[in-house]
Amino acid sequence: MILVDTNVLLDLVTDDPLWAAWSQQQLDLASAQDQFAINDIVYAELSIGYARMEQLDAMIRSAGLVTAAMPRPDTLSITRDADRYRRYFPWIMLIAPD
């Protein structure tokens, strides 16, 4: 399972001029490895940008994401906030900018 962080999804949804291309490239590369997922925290963070839960759920389905529990040791994660992830979840393998 590959946990996708909020900032990566927001890069794509907002077409961020600095990060959208990087985020899309990482998702494209990682998609051959495993299924993409978000947890309840990412879901809650994303929900701020949607007027209705059904709209967010539709975006999640269209992106091929599933919801999952908190990260486990065998999880791979895509994020731009590597320092925080390494501090709180040191066992997770990260896909992050250098």
User: Any idea what the radius of gyration is?
Assistant: 13 Å
What's the number of structural domains?
Answer: 1
CATH first level: Alpha Beta
For the residues shown, what is the average pLDDT? 89
Largest sheet, order of strands side by side? 3-2-1-4-5
Biggest pleated-sheet summary: 5 strands, parallel
Oligomer: single chain
Q: Assign the CATH architecture.
A: 3-Layer(aba) Sandwich
Order of helices and strands: EHHEHHEEHE
Q: Could you name the CATH topology?
A: Rossmann fold
Question: How would you concisely characterize the structure shown here?
Answer:
The chain is α/β, with parallel strands linked by helices.
Describe the structure.
The model has no long low-confidence stretch (mean pLDDT 89). The chain is of the alpha/beta class. The chain has helices at 6-13, 20-30, 40-47, 53-62, 82-88, and strands spanning 2-4, 36-38, 66-67, 76-78, 93-95. Helix 1 packs across helix 2.
Write the layout of secondary structure elements.
Blueprint: E1 2-4, H1 6-13, H2 20-30, E2 36-38, H3 40-47, H4 53-62, E3 66-67, E4 76-78, H5 82-88, E5 93-95
Helix pairs in contact: 1-2
Tags for this model:
98 residues; alpha/beta; Rossmann fold; 45% helix
